[in-house]
Structure formats: C-alpha cells, structure tokens
Amino acid sequence: MKKYFIFFLLSFLIVESVSAQSPEVITIKKYGTENAGNIIKEFSEFLYLPNVAADPVGQQKNADFIMNMMTKRGIQKVQLLRANTVGVPPAVYGEVNVPGATKTLIFYAHYDGQPVNPAQWAKGLEPFQPKLFTDAINKGGTNIPFPADGSYKSEWRIYARGASDDKAGINAIINAYDAIIKSGLAPNYNLKFFFEGEEEAGSPHLHEILEKHQSLLQSDLWIICDGPIHQSGKKQIIFGVRGDVNLELTVYASKRPLHSGHYGNWAPNPAMMLAKLLSSMKDDTGRVTIKGFYDDVTPLSLLEKKSLDEVPSVDEQMKKELGISAVEMKGVTLSEAINQPTLNINGMQSGNVGKMASNQIPTYATAVLDLRLVLGNDWKRQQQKVINHIKAEGYYVSETEPTDEEREKYAKIIKVVSNSDGVNAQRTSMDLPIIQKVIAAVKTTTQNQIVLQPTMGGTLPLFLFEKYLKAKTVTIPIANHDNNQHAENENIRIGNLFEGIVMMASIMMFK
Amino acid sequence: MKKYFIFFLLSFLIVESVSAQSPEVITIKKYGTENAGNIIKEFSEFLYLPNVAADPVGQQKNADFIMNMMTKRGIQKVQLLRANTVGVPPAVYGEVNVPGATKTLIFYAHYDGQPVNPAQWAKGLEPFQPKLFTDAINKGGTNIPFPADGSYKSEWRIYARGASDDKAGINAIINAYDAIIKSGLAPNYNLKFFFEGEEEAGSPHLHEILEKHQSLLQSDLWIICDGPIHQSGKKQIIFGVRGDVNLELTVYASKRPLHSGHYGNWAPNPAMMLAKLLSSMKDDTGRVTIKGFYDDVTPLSLLEKKSLDEVPSVDEQMKKELGISAVEMKGVTLSEAINQPTLNINGMQSGNVGKMASNQIPTYATAVLDLRLVLGNDWKRQQQKVINHIKAEGYYVSETEPTDEEREKYAKIIKVVSNSDGVNAQRTSMDLPIIQKVIAAVKTTTQNQIVLQPTMGGTLPLFLFEKYLKAKTVTIPIANHDNNQHAENENIRIGNLFEGIVMMASIMMFK
After folding, report:
1. Nearest CA of chain A to the CA of B186: how many Å?
2. What residue stretch is flagged as signal peptide (chains A, B) (predicted)?
C-alpha cells in the first residue's frame, strides 16, 4: 500500500498526464519514474560533451557515447554511418528486429547543437556543464543539486546546450526502447535508430549518408524527434515543413558617395529605390503582390483543414509575449499564415545610421529576402517570380555588380543573388494508415488534445529522406516551448523529457 | 625684351585668363607669377601643420602661423578672437584701414581641416607632408620636387589636407592684400580678416565669437572664400546656402528577433513597414508627397532666375562621372534641384545583410533622413511636416522606445528623434549695390562667364553672420572642382591658387 502511494506520488511529479488510457503507457510511466535517477545521470554525462558540428573530435566523443548507450541496451548492428566526405561527424545507427513485426519505424534525432557564446549565458551557467533548476530561470527558478534519491519534479529544468535540441530526443528514443524491454513489453515494429551530427550546420552531408546507406535505412516511416511542443503546452504532431530560399537584392546608384546637399534629390537614392521596390511586393493587408506568388500551392486536404481548424489559437498569447498589437497579414491566424508561402525581409542596409550616419547619398542599398515555401512551390520557380516582379518594376537584373556600360544603359540596376540552393517543402499525408497509427499511439499518452499541424513554419531538410530513400516522415517534438533552442540558456523541462520517453515508447508499441 | 617674354610665359603658366580686362588685374597676375616661389614655400610650411579641429594644440600652431603671416605684411590689430568656451580653437583676426574708404569688406576662410585617415591616402602621400604633382594623380600626375626657381605650372597640384579646404583661401586672401601693396596699388575698402578654426567640426563656437566681438566684426559684406569653383571649370559666386536638419526614424515590431519560418508574414516586419513609410514620402517622379513640403519657399527673384538659367549645365557630365543614367527628380536639372527643399535617405538599417544575415524578422528598422532647406523654410516647421505625414500614415510617434503599454495600444509605433538642431537657409540678394560691385570685380579677372548661383546645395552656418552681426555674406570659392575636399588625397591646383589671389585682390581694389 505504501509502495503504491509512493509510486503515484512520483508519477505525478514527473509526468504530465496521470490518467493515460492504456496499461502499456502506465507501465512506461512507472518505469520512467522509478529510473529517473539513472536516466538523468546518463543524460547529464551526455550533456557534458561539447557538441558543435564544426568540432569533429568533440563530435566523435558524442557518437561514441551514443553507441555505448545503444550497445548497453542490446540494440543491434550499432555502427557509425559515414559520409563520402572525409572528416565530417558520422550518423550513429542501430536497429532491433522484432519477431513477427512487418513494418519498420526509424527514429531520428541529432546530437549536434548550435554554436555557443558562453558570455551570453546567465550567470553561473556554462553551456557544457548541465545544471538543475527548480523552474525556468526567468520564472524565478533556482539552482539545486541533482537529487541523490532520483526523485525529480516535472517543472524542474536542466540547463545546457543540447538539453532540448536535440540530445533530449536521443535520450527519449533510446530510453523508450529500454523501458519497453525492461518492463517486459515488446515493440510492435522493427526499430531503427539514426542520430545525425550535423543538423544545426544545415545537414550538409546528410544526403551522402542517406544515399550511401540506402538499403540499411529502408523503413515505413521516419519519426523525427526534434523541436518544441505547441505554444499552448499541448503535444503536437507535425506532418511537414516549409521550404526556404533566400535572395539578396542590391540596388545601385552613384559610383561614389555623394554630398546630400550638393546632389540630394537630383542623384538617385538607392535606399529610396529599394524602399519603393520592397514596398511594391506587398499590399497594405500584408499579401504578397508578386504575380502568381500564391499559385502552385497544393491545397490542404479536408483532414488537414480540419486539423488546422482545431489547432489551439496562440495568437493573442504570442502578440502579448512579442509586444505587438497587430499582425502583418490582416485577418490571418498564425496557423493559417504558416500554411502559405511567405516573403520576408531578413535584413536591409544602406549607408549608415546612428553615430556613423553622415549627410550622404549612399552608393547602394541591400536587402535579404527569405521566401518560405509550401507544398507545390518549387524554390527556383518561386525565386523567378520575385525576379520577374523586379523586372516588371523597371529594373535591369544582373548577378554581378554593374559595369560602366550597364550603368550608362539602364536607369534602374539591381544585383539579385542567392547564397545557396533552396529547399522545397515536404508534407506527409495524414490519411496514411501508418500515420493514423502514430496519431492514435500519441493519443494514448494524454487526455488532452493532440495538435495536428499539416506543416511547421520552419524548414528542415526532410525532402532529403523523400529524395534519397523515398521515405515518409513525421515530426514529433518533445521539448518545452520555452526551451531557448539555438540561443543562450537552452533547457529541457524534466516533465517534457519523461513525456518524450512515454510518447516514443507508445509509438513503438502501438498495434 | 627677353624679360618680357619670360614674364608672359610664366604668366601663361600659372594663371588661367591671360586677357584680363583691367590693368590692376594684370599687375596682380604679374606679382603672383614673379613671387610664386615664396608664396608656395610659405603655403607648404602652413600645410605641414596638422589642423584637425579637435586638436587645440595643433590648432594654436596654425593660428600662430596665420598671425605671423599677417603681421609680416603689415596687417594691423592682429589678434586671436576667443569663444567664451575655454579650450576651443580661436579665430584669427586682422584689419587694414584704408584712407578714404567708406565701406568695409571682411574676408573669411577657415584653417581647420577634416579629420584624416592616412591609410586611405594614395601611396607615398601623407596628409601633412605636402607634395607637388604634375597633374591630378588619377589623371597620371607624378610627384616632382618643388622647383627651386619658383616657376610653377597651372596644372600642377599640391596634395595635403587643407590644401584646398581651406588653407588655400587663407593663402589667397592674405597674398591678395600683399600683392596689392607690393605692386604699389591700393584697396578701395577697409579690409578685415577672419579665419575660423572649427568650420569642419560644424562651427560649434562661432556664434560665441561673433556675439562677443560684434563691434570689431562690423562690415558691409562678408566674403566667404571656401569650396570649389563650378564643375564646368568656370568661376562662380554663390549667394546663399541651403539649411539642413536630420531626422532619425525607428519603426518597432516584435520585442525579440523571430524565426522567419515560424512567424514570418504573421508578425509585423519592421523593414517592410519602414520601406512602405519611406516609399510613401515620394512619388515616382521623385517629388516629395508630404503635405505642404514645398510651401514656405521664398521664390527666386527675376535676377536669380535669370542667373540660374545661365548656370552651365553639368548634368550630363555628372551623370557620366557618377555612373548613373537617370536622375531622381524627373525633368529637373541639378541647378533647379538645389533650389528646392529635399528629403534624402542618408542611411537605412534593419537586421543584417551579407554574411551576418539570418532567417529572422528583425525587431526594428531605422532610417536617417536629411532635409535640406531653402529660403523661407523653417527647420522646425519642415521637420513637423514629416512627422505629420508619419502620423497620417497611422503611426504612433514617440521620442523614446515604446513601453509595453504603448506596444499593446498601438499597431504602428515609431520613434522620431533629431540628433541636433537644424540650420536655416540663407540667401543674399544679388541686387545689392555692394554685391553688384563684387560681381563686377570678379568679372575683371576673366573673359569667361562667371556662374552666379542663388544658393549652393550644401549647408554652411552663414545664418550666424546674419543673426549675430546682421551681416550680408557672399561665397567666392577658388578651389578646383576635383579637389577631394573632406576625403583622402585632398589637393589644390596651382592655377586655382593663383587665380584665387587675383580674384580676392580684384574685389579688394574694385571701385
């Protein structure tokens, strides 16, 4: 009786949803609670390993650590998958063949983290010295030692680079399998594990690894465990990502900076020219006015539309948090906005402002545009629409700085370049039977709504899985929304880590 | 006979206009040619003295040098005029009372120069080590020693900071008086000399000096010897300056930088907001669309209009030089443009471009505007027109960063500040009898047209002379158009220096 009482108390402390629906989920939660001390001890050791993608020696230590985690738990064929390019961090692979299983799930997370600037972290924090706090630091959390008795509370947080993005994913996936086995349960799928080491660097060699190990990496579905849960605090499953491509525009005027008194309003001003050009790309309701910009979009299916309608609104919460009282695209919710292609100004510069400002007419003005793409868009075609618009505004478009001849010939001259290839959007249909099973599995972990997002606003190179493996993907994030990923003071909420184990295990087991 | 031949040869070498109209002018030219060696030797010593306004010790040496130049030539009451503020460079004063003279001319030039960045100067050049070249460096001029026999050619150039802007002015004014006296001629006016030491720093203490020494500085006309002659190569007289005032605009959006994928085109983009705002300030023909922007302008007199019509067109020459094939204000010549108030973007910045660019929505966007003013404009009223326009575009205008309350209340928030007080325009009527005499005097020095400009495009604090002394001013530049003033490789063309002496002397003597 007393033992039962303790179990329920601990359970309440580190998992969110006490009234889960399936006995399997209850069992996994119990395992998590009882083994929290060891799970976090190992996680903490993992977080001590610096994991910047540009440091191959550090990355090798992380890869070795993960291999050891898997081997200890009886995962088979544990190995490093290397790219053809020499000296880049390998992916770590392992697999489990389950008797009687007919389908294979492959679980993805990444072990590299964003570069760190220790000076930006809060006092007392070091990116690679994980510390436990009683809450988020900006909510008054204080540093406490890791408890010797292994009893953790769900609102506690571990601060370290990679704590949420994405070593938490690796921890949750491997421990989910461990929890299933140690609890005497069994997966319902063959399982594969794939942990990348270059995601934060833009996955520059992922295509090499996928192409080289095509047959090893065959599966029925990739489960991408990365990113935060919904801003409402609800779990979410994301079925796609937007694509992305950049354009840098540089408008040229006089060859040398001019005295604004002697030549102002006679000589062309590149900042004003650029302002007019950018201004012509959107109307006053925030819609892009470039011809055909919203064409090509593959419409959402009925199921996707329904899911989108059910996404909890965080618009007012986010407006308050961001200190804004109006949105750019009038009458469009955040959920709707991320299902459309966008045109966004990332940066804009001409002459100087502030203390360096001088009474001059600058020689050029530059803007960087970021075009997010949805399913149906092609990054080259979308870029070309922008270029066609610029031409229709009377510009001579070139990819290089203008020559004297061009300057003499054309009144309006612009250089348009793209610093890298674009990435198309990817979206997996919610209707697929295996996807329906995943949704059902996640539903067994909570009584709350599961947010089903047709796409996330951001971009991941998920098209690579489609391109090189003809694979389907679905993204299931576990980190808390306020995890500070990519920035200083990155953290994972204990409750989210353990709910992550429960979610991954429920997917592995679901029949 | 041989002597005559040499005289004409030398005369041809260092002065532009051999067929001057008056015997006095011929005499002064002869003096210049015969004394070129000594004049340039002294000028060169002067150029060795560093003359940055922020260096009071260096400036004192310059002031002492000028006092010595004047004393040697018998100029009287030579003294330093100090501001009330301690530690700022003094003005250098001197005067000559001419028997029978009823009117007084006061000649102005400044001895301070723009700050220097020696690294930007051409190889072999040091800002404060004057060197002689056979032509402009960018036209293939080569360095030669200063000739021992004092025979200079008009196309030669001296390179040094201050060579043209504005130690050439001081040199021309003092040597003009010297040439008159040494040639046995006489001035027709009482003469005063006023050489400022802080012009390039924006004359921050000039008003103190003028106010403190009001009675000493009384005159009938200030002759401002500063700046370059007309781009056509013709001499010019300038009767006014434009005023100027700046405004810095900062549009605010989200409090923290946002991921452009997750929030782009939902959250407001400050760069796009600023682009639209700036764009609303001008139409496609380059006219300012701000309500009442061109009101208040005092129309040009008939004489001023006629003079303006006669200004040689340099538009095509400048377009070629600047590498532009169209102007901002369609159908308006450069001469016309500088007789109108302007709105110019000096600088614009939001987020980052180039290597620092990231896929973000910036938190703010800033632009610096420069408003040039013509006679009739008041800088405060002109600023207010811009602010009224911004309000009419739906902005909440503040002078500080927005508070959370303001962010919640207003959809469009902008900070509008001005870093310093403005300066109004100034213009002296061409009809005044004393002005007519000055024009006639300059005409005696050349058969070419004298360009009469109602105003220059730039701004000088000439309104101070009007305000504190109720004085009239007229600007008579002597430097070559391509003198690189304010920049690296500043230079004076020898011909322009000696023509400057001739012009100043002709004004002093004209009856």
Report:
1. 37
2. 1-20
**Whether B275 and B127 share a structural domain:** no
Q: Are residues B217 and B268 in the same domain?
A: no
pLDDT reading at B349 higher than 70: yes
Of B324, B370, B456, Cβ closest to residue A407: B324
Determine the pLDDT at residue A15: 52
DSSP, residue by residue, A74-95: T-EEEEEEPPSSTTSPPEEEEE
Peptide bond into A421 cis (omega under 30): no
Nearest chain A residue to B373 by CA distance is A261
Contacts of B402 in chain A (CB under 8 A): 323
Nearest CA in chain A to B458: A261
Instruction: Give me the CATH number covering residue A407.
Output: 3.30.70.360
* Phi, psi dihedral angles at A318 (to 5 degrees): -70, -40
Could you give the CA distance from residue B344 to residue B322 in angstroms, rounded to a whole number?
A: 18
Structural domain includes residue A323: no
Q: How far apart are CA B477 and CA B498, in angstroms?
A: 13
Smallest CA–CA distance, residue A492 to chain B, in Å, is: 20
* Residue A102 and residue A158 share a domain: yes
Q: How far apart are CA B174 and CA A125, in angstroms?
A: 70
CATH number of the domain that residue B439 is part of: 3.40.630.10
Query: Considering the domain boundaries, does residue A306 fall inside one?
Result: no
User: Nearest 5°: CA angle at B186, between B185 and B188?
Assistant: 140
Residue where one domain finishes, among candidates B401, B417, B433: B417
Interchain CB distance below 8 Å, A326 and B284: no
Which domain, by its residues, includes A73?
A: 2-241+425-509
Residues B198 and B87 in one domain: yes
Distance from CA of B340 to the nearest CA of A (A): 9
pLDDT at residue A337, rounded to an integer: 94
- Residues paired with residue B104 on neighbouring β-strands, in sequence order: B190
Residues A284 and A433 in one domain: no
A401 within domain boundaries:
yes
Are A224 and A263 within one domain? no
Report which of A292, A269, A276 is spatially closest to residue A394, judged by C-alpha positions: A276
pLDDT band at A22 (very low <50, low <70, confident <90, very high): confident
Nearest to A370 among B255, B324, B359 (CB): B359
Q: Do A366 and B359 touch (CB under 8 A)?
A: no
Across the range B140-148, mean pLDDT stands at 96
Report the chain A residue with the minimal C-alpha distance to residue B394.
Answer: A284
Choose one of A417, A439, A460: the last residue of a domain: A417
Asked if the Cβ–Cβ distance from A260 to B410 is below 8 Å, we say no
Q: Across chain B, what does the average pLDDT equal?
A: 93
A18 has a pLDDT exceeding 70:
no
* Set of chain A residues whose Cβ sits within 8 Å of the Cβ of B254: 322-324
Q: Above pLDDT 70, what percent of chain B?
A: 96
**Minimal CA–CA distance to B345: which of A249, A49, A352?**
A352
Test A344 with B329 for CB contact under 8 angstroms. Answer: no
Instruction: Indicate whether A453 and A478 sit together in one domain.
Output: yes
pLDDT tens string A371-422 = 999 999 999 999 999 999 999 999 999 999 999 999 999 999 999 999 778 8
Say whether A351 and B359 touch across the interface (CB within 8 A).
no
Per the CB < 8 Å rule, is A345 touching B351? yes
Domain membership of residue A100 (yes or no) is: yes
Identify the CA nearest to A440 among candidates A466, A411, A474. Answer: A474
pLDDT average, residue stretch A472-484: 94
* B262 contact residues in A (CB cutoff 8 A): 338, 456-458
**Residue A418 token pair:** 């793209």
CB contact under 8 A, B408 and A334: no
Could you give the maximum distance between any two Cα atoms of chain B, in Å?
91
DSSP class of residue A315 equals H
Note whether A260 and A136 are same-domain residues.
Answer: no
- Asked if A328 lies within 8 A of B457 by C-beta distance, the reply is no
Total domains in the fold of chain A: 2
User: Above 80 in pLDDT, residue A17?
Assistant: no
